[in-house]
Amino acid sequence: MQSSLPNKQDFIIDMGDGILLKPKKAFVVTQLDDVAGCLKYQDKPKTLEDMDNAIRQGIEKS
Q1: Which of 13, 18, 22, 37 is a good FRET partner for 47, with 20 to 30 A between their CA atoms?
Q2: Record's superkingdom (predicted)?
Q3: For the chain, which ranges sit under pLDDT 70?
Q4: What is the rounded distance in angstroms from the CA atom of residue 4 to the CA atom of residue 33?
Q5: What are phi and psi of 23, to 5 degrees?
């Protein structure tokens, strides 16, 4: 028996004595050249302090 979970992220496979949750592959295989354009950043580099503050703010909002 094999079925998909409602969130479409995993497969449930009945192994007889238990179940196996197996994730679906989220993306097709790509090459770095196919996606590297999204990595460009035009502003000044962020410091570790900037990143820590952003993480802290995200935690406080959740």
Answers
A1: 37
A2: Bacteria
A3: 1-9
A4: 33
A5: -70, 145
